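We modelled the chain as a single entity of 141 amino acids. Its sequence is:
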Amino acid sequence: MAKAVAVDGKTVPLSGREFALLHALMTLVRNLVDDAINYTPAGGRFDLPSAVEGEGAVIEVSDNGPGVAPSERALVFEPFHRVLGSDESGSGLGLSIVKAITDRCAASLALDYTDVAQSSGLRVTVSFRGSGRNADTITQR
């Protein structure tokens, strides 16, 4: 199915594959933002910077919530995994969906603390080919 959408005021035709990729990227960002909202304390903050780097792109979502301990980072990508001690509701599928999308797009996915010195907050970085940031799948700190 081909579709045309307006991007910055210009109509861009999308093939069925491109439309599916756009939908997957919207799902990826929605899951990351939902998690940031859910785990950021009242009065907290989250940021969603993105950039084009070379022939690639980087999407980053960071918050000032509790973060994810290095020992839990590989586990949070497993379906239905929930970090113990979290009072947030949810199914534990958000990051596993994000991981599945990044795998399909050959993108890298890294987790780190937003504030490394305080071991707090979560920064999720998704790097697409050509961005120069394609590193290990999971950053341990």
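As a brief sanity check on the tokenised model: Helices lie at 16-39, 94-104. The first strand starts at residue 3 and ends at 7.
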